[in-house]
Amino acid sequence: MGRACVLLFYLMTALISVLIRLRLLIAQTYSVGVLTFLIVVVSGFFIGMVLGLQGYTTLSDFGAESALGQIVGTSLVRELGPVMAALLFAGRAGSALTAEIGLMKATEQLSGMEMMAVDPIKRIIAPRFWAGFISMPILALLLSAAGVLGGYLIGVEILGVDNGIFWARMQATIDFKSDLLNGIIKSVVFGFVVTWIAVFEGYDTIPTSEGVGQATTRTVVYSAFAILGLDFIMTALMFGDF
Amino acid sequence: MSHASKDAIVSVENMSFSHGPRTIFDRVNISITRGNITAIMGPSGTGKTTLLKLIGGQLRPQSGQVTVDQQVVHQLHRRHLFELRKRMGMLFQSGALLTDLSVFDNVAFPMREHTQLSESMIRALVLMKLDAVGLRGAHPLMPSQLSGGMARRVALARAIALDPKIMMYDEPFAGQDPISMGVLLKLIQVLNNALNLTSIIVTHDIKEAFTIADEVYLISEGKVIEHGPPDDIQNSSSKWVQQFIQGHYDGPVPFHYPANDYQTDLYG
User: What is the CATH number of domain B8-87+164-267?
Assistant: First the structure.
C-alpha cells in the first residue's frame, strides 16, 4: 500500500511531462480506451436488452410498462453504466496493462530504460495511467448509451411500449445533476482506482512469468472488489437518505 | 587510504551490499582503469550483475562507496544520476530491447529522449551505429524477428547511441553460437579502442574474457579472490583460481551441496 501511494505520487507529478508529450498519451488512450470500446458497447447493448426484458415483465404485472424508459435509463446511468464499464475495463484494459508493464519489467526493459537515463514512470507508466483515467468515464457513458438503445429495441420495437412515452419518461425522470453527474463521478473514481491498481501491480511484479501471471490476476480481483465496494459507498453518499 | 588510483574511472571502495539476509558483497575494492577492458568474473550467483547495477546507481550499497568519474554514485541527486547515466552504456543479458519499437526506433530511442537532433540527423546517426555492429540492413525489423546474437548487437548499437564513456556488458557471451561470440568479442574490442571507451565485462566465459581483457577480477562469495592481468591470473597459485579457470568439477568449490552424512540419509 505504501509503495502504491509512492507510485501514485510520482504519477501525479508526472502529469505535466505527460501533457508535454501528448503523442504518448494519445497512443495509450487508443490502446487502453479505443480498443476497449467495442466490448463495452456490445456488452452495454446486451445489458440494456436484458433490462428492457426484465423491466417489461415485472412492470407489466402492475400495468406500468410506460415506466420502462425510466427504469432502463436510471439503472444504466446511475449504476450499471459505470460499474459494468469499470468491470469490463478492468478485465480488458487493466489486465493488459499489468501484463504489459510486468513483462517489460521481467525482460529488463524498464531497467534498461533507467540505464539510458529515461525515467520509466514518466515514459511508460504515467501515460498509461492517465490514458485509463481519461478513457473510463467516456466508456461508461458509451455503455449507458448502448444500453439505452438495447432497452429501446426490446421495449419499444419488440414488446410494443409506446415510443413517445418511453423517451418522455426517461427525459422527465433522469436529472442531469443527481443522475448523470453522479454516474460520471463514479466512473471517474473507478477509472482512477482500476488504472492505479493495474499499473501498480505491473510495476510491482515479481519479474518472472509466474509473477506476471499472479499480478494480472490480482489486478482483476482487486479491481472488482474496489469497484463494487466503492460503488456501494458512493451510492450511499449520493442517493442514500441517512 | 583510498584504493582509487588517479586514472580510475570507476572505483569501488570498501563496498558492502546485502540482499535481505544474504551478503552479496563484503567490503569489496575494485578499481577500473580508464581505457581498459576489465573483466569481472566469478561463479554464477556471485552478484556480478548486481555489481553493474551498483555502478549504474540502480542499487545502493549498505556501506562503502562506488565512484564513477569522480562522483559518488549513490549520493547523487536523481537528476545528476541521470546525467551520469547518459555517459554510461549498458548491454543487458537479455538485450532489453523495447519490444514495441523497431530496430531503428530502438537505437533512435535514447537520441530522441535526450537530444534535440532533427529526424534526418537521427536517421544518419542510427544507421551509422547500426553499421558499426553490422546490422544496418536490419533496421526495419522488429525485435521479435531477431536472433539472440542480433538482438544483442542491436542493444549494443543502442548502448553506444549517445557516445558513452563507459560501457558495461552483462554476460555478453552467454548463450551465443561460436560465430556471434566471435562477432561480439571483436565488437567489444574494436569499440573500446575506436570510441575511447572504458569497458566492464561481467562474464564467466574464461577463454573469451582472457583474450580481450586488460585486467581481470575474480569474485566469489562476496570477496575479490584475485585480480590482475590475465597472465598473472592464469599463473596464480590459488587452488580456487585454478579450479575456476580450469573448470575442475571438484576442489575448493565442492561438487556436493552441503548435506547430511550419506549413510544416515539413506538408511535413516
Answer: 3.40.50.300
Cβ distance of A117 and B85 shorter than 8 Å: yes
Tens digits of residue pLDDT in B70-91? 888 888 888 888 889 988 989 9
CA distance A203 to chain B (A): 15
Quickly count helices (H) and strands (E) in chain A.
13, 0
**Contact by Cβ (8 Å): B143, B151:** yes
pLDDT given for residue A151 in this prediction: 93
pLDDT at residue A160 in the model: 86
Across the interface, of A111, A117, A123, the residue whose CB is closest to B82 is A117
Please choose, from the candidates B204, B169, B223, B203, the residue with its C-alpha nearest in 3D space to the C-alpha of residue B29.
B223
Judged by CB atoms closer than 8 Å, whether chains meet at A117 and B99 is answered as: no
* ipTM value for the complex: 0.79
Cell matching residue B12: 569501488
Cα A149–chain centre separation: 19
Are A116 and B158 within 8 A, CB to CB?
yes
Question: pLDDT digit string (tens) for B21-54?
Answer: 888 888 889 999 998 999 998 887 788 888 888 9
Start-to-end C-alpha separation, chain B: 55
Contacts of A119 in chain B (CB under 8 A): 82
Which chain A residue has its CA at the smallest distance from B52's CA? Answer: A115
Q: Are strands B63-68 and B37-41 parallel, antiparallel or unpaired?
A: unpaired
Lookup: cell for B137: 540492413
> Are the CB atoms for B23 and B64 separated by under 8 Å?
no
- What type of residue sits at position B185? L
The mean of the pLDDT values for chain A is 91
B90–A114 CB contact, under 8 Å: no
Q: What is the pTM of this model?
A: 0.83
Best residue in B58, B86, B90, B146 to probe A by mutation, most A CBs within 10 Å?
B90
pLDDT, tens only, A36-53: 999 999 999 999 999 999
pLDDT at B1: 36
Spans of all domains in chain B: 8-87+164-267, 100-163
Please, which contacts does B223-230 make with residues 24 or more away whose CB atoms are closer than 8 Å? B223/B26, B223/B28, B224/B28, B224/B29, B224/B30, B225/B42, B227/B30
B interface residues, A as partner, C-beta within 8 Å: 53, 56, 58, 82-83, 85-86, 88, 90, 92-94, 96-99, 109-110, 113-114, 155, 158, 162
Helix (H) or strand (E) holding B217: strand B215-220
